[in-house]
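We close this part of the discussion by returning to an individual protein. Part of our work consisted of pairing the sequence of a single chain with a tokenised description of its backbone. What the numbers capture is local backbone geometry rather than side-chain detail. The amino acid sequence and the backbone structure tokens for this protein are reproduced below.
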Amino acid sequence: MTHRKPLILLAVLMAASATGVALAAAAPAQKPAPARLDANGDGAIDRQEAAAHPHLAQRFDELDKNKDGRLSREEMPRWHARGGDGHRGMGRHHRGHGGQGFVRMMDADRDGRVSAAEYQAFFERMDVNKDGFIDQADREARAQQRREAWFRDADTDKDGKLSPAELEAARAKMGSHGPRAMQAPAK
């Protein structure tokens, strides 16, 4: 009986080892971490670092206010909100096309921060019926306002109808804002 204990122990260890190897082999490959904006950690973004981010590379000259070939924290206000390394640290509501969702919409002065006054102004703009709450009725009213404004802007001859030329001009004006922005509003 005592001779079996070492054999049982050896069998258990081999089974555990084989299980560990099988689990390690079956583990899904992890996604690589997103590239940091400031790859070399020097506190600024140079052209080479910006090249890894096409949208940033495209706007590099516009953002480089002092024309030193580097983007400092002051030249990239949204960098503050991302923790300085280009990673969004504020959760899923701040993802989206090229920015930070609600923060970007509320940040009227584009300094990367939302003040109490900016928040209040945003809330008041969204509370269309002025009942102190933002609800589905407000969303629908805002959507209707945007559709009416789009139509007014697109109807250049102000005849209450869109000609094919007016529609194409409106689509061209919307440019890269995506397919939803380019659709004619429902009547």
Observations:
- The chain is about 50% helix and 0% strand.
- The CA atoms of residues 153 and 177 lie 16 Å apart.
- The longest strand covers residues 45-46.
- Strands lie at 45-46, 70-71.
